[in-house]
Design goal:
The chain is mainly alpha-helical and 260 residues long. It has one domain (2-258). It has helices spanning 2-19, 24-48, 51-54, 60-80, 83-91, 94-99, 105-133, 139-144, 146-166, 171-187, 202-206, 209-222, 232-258.
Length: 260
């Protein structure tokens, strides 16, 4: 199975070699725009006020950047697990062509998520380098945060892939991003501590994978200045639960749709 899954990863890499230019803006320019607008622009206003007191004395740029790293991984993972999966099943039907070879459904799912994982590492590494250029984080500790960021991305890619394979049309994907991904992006601790949320919303944030990813990336970069709410192993285990659970469900939904 491992060799067959690697063939799927290789196929994705060959396609990406010809299409990578289409992702240049999202990979390189979006982090720059976010850090300029929110970290430098808004951050200057926060630092002038009383914001640094709520952030344990660190600058808003330093607080924001690791959260954006995790959020960017979430968006990339959800994006790679949504419309490309539906396209492979419904529109271009490349998954059916793949299954006409010795590749089986399990190989297809594992290879797809393996490629998403590689994309997570690449996108997150680029993000960290840009963060370091802005002076938001030291490059060394920033690169360590690539690991929790990649886990965060996969924690969304696996269940979203399962969901996309289950859907009959792409309306469900639009609703997922509108009512799921965007609110999580805004209210999972990326831009401000969740302690500033209304009391009834804080427990909801605890069950969102992005919050756990933000906790890990921020603690990895800033250390004792932003300790995790739970022991780091709990956050890692929670992300792995989403990855493993989502992968197992993806096996079932892919099998149901592809019928092999």
């Amino acid at each position: 199975m491992a060799t067959a899954a690697l063939r799927v990863v290789e196929a994705h890499a060959r396609v990406y070699r010809r299409t990578w230019r289409g992702s240049v803006i999202s990979t390189f320019l979006v982090p720059v725009f976010y850090l300029l607008a929110m970290g430098v622009g808004l951050g200057e206003l926060v630092d002038r006020g009383t914001g640094t007191a709520a952030l344990n004395g660190i600058t808003y740029l330093a607080f924001l950047a690791p959260g954006l790293l995790a959020a960017s991984a979430m968006q990339t993972g959800a994006g790679d697990g949504s419309w490309p999966v539906m396209a492979g099943i419904k529109w271009t039907k490349t998954y059916f062509a793949t299954l006409a070879t010795p590749i089986r459904i399990g190989d297809l799912v594992v290879g797809h998520l393996g490629w998403v994982g590689i994309r997570m590492v690449f996108v997150s590494t680029v993000f960290v380098v840009i963060m370091a250029i802005f002076g938001a984080v030291p490059l060394g500790s920033g690169l360590l945060a690539v690991v929790p960021a990649a886990l965060t991305g996969l924690a969304f890619a696996a269940p979203v892939s399962a969901y996309a394979a289950w859907l009959k049309d792409d309306h469900g994907l639009s609703n997922l991003f509108r009512f799921g991904i965007v609110p999580m992006f805004l209210f999972s601790g990326t831009f401000f501590p969740i302690t500033q949320l209304p009391g009834w919303m804080q427990p909801i944030a605890y069950v969102v994978p992005l919050w756990h990813g933000v906790q890990l990336t921020r603690a990895t970069v800033l250390g004792s200045l932003t300790p995790t709410t739970f022991p780091p192993v709990v956050h890692v285990a929670y992300l792995l639960l989403w990855i493993i659970g989502g992968t197992l469900v993806a096996f079932r939904t892919f099998d149901k749709k592809l019928g092999q």
